């Protein structure tokens, strides 16, 4: 196991670095980079680590990364947008990245276990508390934010990496999983494999999937056959489980229950021709639900829907859910969340037309909050001024808030979330959003502290 030296220790371990000469110059060059600016905005790594319940234990094997380094590594993942393997390769050869993660890796003994990234992601996902973490972030960033009484809000969807879920693909995945489990159980229990038409359907489904055009009659025929085969495999697996005494894992039980639910849903869809509520679209990510967004390019999205608040260009998560929800009902909680983060009363709010309900209009009017909602009823005395103000709010919301959605998805690894579990996906989204925030805050800090010195 390679010996990893913490940043706090390497000044004394490595004689070529000295605080007076090399280290100061190295630190100055590091702060000029965008990575250094992110580091500059996060002097409270340890305080943030406490919200994840991370501890640097003195017992047991010495961990490569400190609690500070674990959080920093997750930010690097979103900042560079590369695979776990590539991230470790970059970390081995980049001294700035090692400085950012509070470690020094010997050149002749690099890290080789790239799975440590996913292990840390799973550890952090179990302790993530979005509300507490964002309170710490806002408390430390608020000094570099202005117009705290003005907020913008909107919802967006961060898509998970899943194949487009047609009924035939979903049924075939269930059939494949059931057959492989049945094969494994029969081999372990040394019993005869039940006869099924799996091999025939394997050939038929391959032919079906290769066809460029799939007529409705052909799809109906394939769906009917796969439903019958899945029913047969579900029954055979149940017989094996009932007739043989063996223990199964919790993961196996959950997957069996998921496939049973998929069968009942798909049978109902096939019979009625209509969709069903709470529809499962992936057996590997059974928590994902279709979210109808009504966009021209993509009408349905599959992933987490997030209602966000923007304060002076800095985004915060107000609500995240893997089901469709009406963000217009969350305006009041959005205002209260923003006031809790900034400790400032909201005076101006920009939101989409879906938020302009009568209930929300009454709430904003009673709390003296100026909005960009389309006016109802007769014009007041200050109608011209109201129009100018509403136009300005609407323009800023459309450029800053909606522009930040695209920036996060394109440059902070949020276009497709490649995590494997629901908790790790939420963690991935959390660090993607706040890595973008940290860079923006870091640039403001750098400009205020160092730009005058270098001018």
Give a concise summary.
By secondary structure, the protein is of the alpha/beta class. It has 18 helices and 8 strands.
Task: Explain the overall architecture.
Strands 3, 4, 5, 6, 7 and 8 form a 6-stranded mixed sheet that branches. This protein has a two-stranded antiparallel sheet with strand order 1-2. The chain folds into 3 domains: 5-127, no CATH class; 145-162 and 297-418, Nucleotidyltransferase, domain 5 (2-Layer Sandwich), CATH 3.30.420; 167-272, no CATH class. The chain is built from 18 helices and 8 strands. It has helices at 7-13, 19-32, 34-40, 45-51, 67-80, 84-93, 95-100, 116-127, 130-141, 167-189, 198-210, 216-243, 250-272, 331-342, 358-366, 383-411, 422-449, 451-454, and strands spanning 5-6, 103-104, 150-159, 290-292, 300-311, 314-321, 348-351, 370-371. Strand 5 and strand 6 (314-321) form a beta hairpin. The protein is α/β, with parallel strands linked by helices and 455 residues long. It is globular, with a radius of gyration of 27 Å.
């Amino acid at each position: 196991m390679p010996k990893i030296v913490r940043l706090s220790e390497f000044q004394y371990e490595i004689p070529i670095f000295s605080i007076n000469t090399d280290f100061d110059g190295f630190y100055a060059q590091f702060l000029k980079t965008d990575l250094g600016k992110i580091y500059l905005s996060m002097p409270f790594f340890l305080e943030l680590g406490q919200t994840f319940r991370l501890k640097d234990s003195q017992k047991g094997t010495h961990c490569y990364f400190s609690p500070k380094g674990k959080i920093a590594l997750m930010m690097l993942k979103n900042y560079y947008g590369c695979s776990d393997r590539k991230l470790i390769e970059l970390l081995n050869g980049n001294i700035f990245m090692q400085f950012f993660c509070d470690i020094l890796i010997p050149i002749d003994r690099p890290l080789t276990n790239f799975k440590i990234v996913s292990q840390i992601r799973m550890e952090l996902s179990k302790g993530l508390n979005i509300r507490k973490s964002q309170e710490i972030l806002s408390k430390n960033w608020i000094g570099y934010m202005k117009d705290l009484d003005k907020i913008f809000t909107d919802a967006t969807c961060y898509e998970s990496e899943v194949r487009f879920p047609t009924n035939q693909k979903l049924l075939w995945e269930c059939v494949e999983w059931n057959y492989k489990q049945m094969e494994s159980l029969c081999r372990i229990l040394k019993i005869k494999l039940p006869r099924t038409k799996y091999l025939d359907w394997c050939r038929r489904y391959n032919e079906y999937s290769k066809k460029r055009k799939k007529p409705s009659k052909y799809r109906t025929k394939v769906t009917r056959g796969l439903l019958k085969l899945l029913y047969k495999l579900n029954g055979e697996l149940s017989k094996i489980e009932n007739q043989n005494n063996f223990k199964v894992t919790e993961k196996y039980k959950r997957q069996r229950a998921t496939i049973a639910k998929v069968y009942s849903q798909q049978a109902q869809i096939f019979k009625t021709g209509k969709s069903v509520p709470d529809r499962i679209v992936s057996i590997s990510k059974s928590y994902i639900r279709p979210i109808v967004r009504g966009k021209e390019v993509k009408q349905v999205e599959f992933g987490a829907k997030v209602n966000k608040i923007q304060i002076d260009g800095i985004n915060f998560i107000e609500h995240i859910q893997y089901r469709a929800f009406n963000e217009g009902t969350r305006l009041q909680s959005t205002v209260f969340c923003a006031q809790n983060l900034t400790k400032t009363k909201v005076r101006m709010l920009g939101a989409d037309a879906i938020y302009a309900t009568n209930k929300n209009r009454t709430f904003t009017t009673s709390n003296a909050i100026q909005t960009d909602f389309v006016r109802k009823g007769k014009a007041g005395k200050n109608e011209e001024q109201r129009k100018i103000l509403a136009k300005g709010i609407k323009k800023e919301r459309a450029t800053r808030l909606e522009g930040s959605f695209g920036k996060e998805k394109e440059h902070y690894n949020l276009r497709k979330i490649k995590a494997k579990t629901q908790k790790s996906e939420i963690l991935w989204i959390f660090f993607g959003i706040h890595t973008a925030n940290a860079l923006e805050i870091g640039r403001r800090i750098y400009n205020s502290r160092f730009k005058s010195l270098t001018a």
